Amino acid sequence: MNEILKAIKERRSIRRFKHDMPKREDINAIIEAGLYAASGKASQSPIIIAVTNKELRDKISRDNREIGGWDEGFDPFYGAPVILVVLADTERPTHVYDGSLVIGNMMLAAHSLGLGSIWIHRAKQEFERDNYRKLLADLGIQGSYEGIGHCAIGYIDGDIPPAHEIKPGRVFWAE
Question: Does CATH place domain 14-154 in 3.40.109.10?
């Protein structure tokens, strides 16, 4: 089977990660895969903030937990040591779609490198907060960016979950 099709069929969302930091070259490869994602009119509007600083990672986790309404102590990133936050320029009408493709590419790239990943929402709500707008400014990011999502990555702690059964009746041919 084609390697890309195999990766698409085998990739799973991981909900238990080891605390070990992946190799920087693997993180860079995953980010690069995201940067190659298709975008409307080749605008390449999405940006990626690679969070490997544990203190910042834990702060984002706490804020994400608070936004999601979970109990104290829950980690919505399931222990993943790396959070790749994707934001996209709201001036682009396709910004949400473009950012979504970035995350999809990164999840497949992580799988191809033997790492686990999971897409976590609520980046939009986080980056509407003043302290996250300040983070963007501190990083030198200017413009009108909206949080699209987080791609949490790391080494898998445990077994890869089995595939869900594909629901029937989702394809319609117009021949």
Answer: yes
